[in-house]
Design a protein that fits this description.
Layout lengths: L12 H24 L6 H8 L3 H7 L5 H4 L3 H13 L6 H12 L7 H13 L1 H25 L10 H21 L8 H13 L15
């Protein structure tokens, strides 16, 4: 699906409205699930809380459970496009960092939602399993894009290196969010995110500080 963009490369008004509606539905789903349990939250309740109809809900999510996952296929599309279009002289790790960073600009203002989502997943393990499957599918598509950037031929099996790079990058994003959501953390998300990719860039060398401390 092609994303309608402005001349500056950002999403157009129609796409931004769609993103806002999807976010409102996901936020409503997570808030209701945190209060009542995901199994007790209906599509009708989620739609009502977001101010849209149940029919609109299914324009954005295939099923009830998908609303809690906070996975947007269009985000993956934009990340992969950014990887494909990045200048050839840029390192692969830098390209991935910038591609993910562009999609995480609103994470800071949604701290509460991300924290609540973690609690919802703890209470509903089936959502964690479902989310893992969705993330693995996204990760494989990213690996295919990495292979393409490295000169691979479309249709050929994706090799170990592209798959490893995609897995490491997506894991760095996930761990950054999880670490930032910890109650004891009092730092900006972007700082945690950058530190995670700095660790990758260093080859995961053990930092000077205690490896178990929040400062690493």
């Amino acid at each position: 699906m092609q994303v309608v963009q402005n001349k500056d490369g950002g999403p157009g008004l129609r796409e931004r409205k769609k993103q806002a509606t999807r976010a409102a539905l996901a936020d409503a789903a997570v808030r209701l699930a945190a209060e009542h349990g995901a199994e007790h939250v209906t599509v009708e309740a989620i739609s009502s809380a977001a101010g849209v109809s149940p029919r609109t809900f299914f324009n954005y999510f295939d099923s009830h459970d998908d609303a809690f996952l906070m996975i947007d296929a269009e985000v993956g599309h934009r990340i992969r496009r950014a990887v494909r279009e990045a200048p050839a002289e840029h390192s692969l790790l830098d390209v991935l960092r910038e591609a993910f960073s562009a999609e995480l600009v609103d994470v800071e203002e949604r701290h509460e939602i991300w924290s609540l989502r973690a609690k919802v997943f703890q209470r509903s393990p089936h959502l964690l399993v479902r989310g893992l499957g969705a993330h693995m599918a996204e990760e494989m598509e990213l690996a295919e894009t990495v292979a393409e950037r490295l000169g691979g031929v479309e249709g050929e099996p994706v090799g170990l290196y592209p798959r490893l790079v995609a897995a490491v990058a997506t894991t760095a994003v996930r761990v950054s969010i999880e670490d930032w959501c910890r109650p004891t953390q009092n730092v900006a998300f972007i700082d945690v995110f950058r530190r995670a990719f700095d660790h990758l860039a260093s080859g995961l060398a053990v930092p000077d500080k205690d490896a178990g401390s929040s400062g690493t």
